[in-house]
Amino acid sequence: MRRRKDPLWARLLTGFGLVLVMASGGTLATARTLIGQAEDSITQIDVIGGSGGAEQAEGNDIDGAVNMLLVGIDAREGDEDYRADTIIILHIPETHDQAYLISIPRDWMVEIPPNEEFEFPGATEKINAAFYYGSRLPGTGLEKRARGTTVLAATLREHTGIEFNGAAVIDFGGFHSIVHALGGVDMCIVERAESVHLGVAPDGKLVQGWYNDQVRPERLEGLPPGSVPLVHEPGCRSMDATRALDYARIRKSLDNGDYGRQQHQQQLIKAIVKKATSSGVLTDLGKLNELVDAAGEAFLLDTRRVPLADFFFTLKGVAANDLTLIKTNAGTFNVSAETGAEQLDAESLQMLQAAQDGTLTTFLIEHPQYIANSR
């Protein structure tokens, strides 16, 4: 796998690209210095494979709409049974003045197409398993993540028609590093959420536990005596990296389960973008460099050979407030009466087709129920 220039949506996930442009005062020379730093630190690989869109020629602008596949995995030390815990499609219309985050339900039951190269015959499984089937062959962690994304992208293309312009893969540890580099983020919690990962010790310190789903009632275990699960109460507040990531991973205690978690993950991405493009970051060169380094260690990127600078300057008009959060199934479970499995309804599939056709903005005007609360 060879390195190549990388893209924009490191910026949409971390506020990264707009930071580079704005921090440079709009001057190409200074921006290129920061872009060069990013190119040296971010791992760039082929992950989309044959399911991606046509390569773009190098130039100063990018024509047409952009669809990027964003994948979050829970990669734990010593465990390479990778599954895609977070699947988001980043859509930017051809006007390049807006961006949409569309979360895909991880429990969506689909036909995962075969892949002869990866010795995979195909399967009927939840869509998050597509990443696992691509990554299960022996190899380095980098190779496994690349293959997993290839199979996941092919599966989404099969069921939505979307031709991806590229992809980004990040694990939860990478998200933690980015939020830590920012000094935390501002989040508005709209629903009480009890952690399944962290507890609070009697001295007020956070402690790591583990969630036992093999017993009834399911519970957080492994906490020191006297500790209780961390609870995120409603309200707006600044959150450090540990608390923000924990909140974005919770689904068990939410009324709407995984759909609630999808919204919280989208909120975290938007909070990262807003913090990264705030004056407190843009005027702090040390923090900028720390953010670039954190992003470089966190991401695997594939932009189909589009130069990094082209993404940045084409999309410099997209601000954090232009990032709209989108729900599939209008944010509710849609269980098949025949199979009992989660399915995308007909309107959600129309919405995804609109993303491919470049008509998503029109669809959302006609179907506002698919727009999530972005607080």
Describe this structure in words.
InterPro entries: LytR/CpsA/Psr_CW_biosynth, LytR_CpsA_psr. It holds the Pfam family LytR_cpsA_psr. Belongs to the LytR/CpsA/Psr (LCP) family. With 375 residues, this protein is α+β, with helices and mostly antiparallel strands. The chain has a single domain, classed as Nucleotidyltransferase, domain 5 (2-Layer Sandwich). The protein is 37% helix and 21% strand. It has 13 helices and 16 strands. The strands form five sheets. The chain has a seven-stranded mixed beta sheet, with helices on both faces. Strand 9 and strand 10 form a beta hairpin. Helix 2 runs antiparallel to helix 3, helix 6 packs antiparallel against helix 10 and helix 7 packs antiparallel against helix 8. The chain is globular and about 55 Å long. The two termini are 40 Å apart.
> Which term fits the overall shape?
globular
Question: How many domains is the backbone divided into?
Answer: 1
Structural class label:
alpha+beta
Count of helical segments?
13
Largest sheet: 7 strands, mixed
Low-confidence stretches: 1-30, 51-60
Q: Report Rg.
A: 20 Å
Q: What proportion strand?
A: 15-25%
Mean pLDDT reading: 78
Order of helices and strands: HHHEEEEEEHHEHEEEEEEEHHHHEHEHH
Report strand order across the widest sheet.
Answer: 1-15-7-2-3-4-16
- Total DSSP E strands: 16
* CATH arch. level architecture: 2-Layer Sandwich
Find the CATH topology. Answer: Nucleotidyltransferase, domain 5
Question: How helical, in percent, are the residues?
Answer: 25-40%
Distance between the termini: 40 Å
What is the CATH first-level class name?
A: Alpha Beta
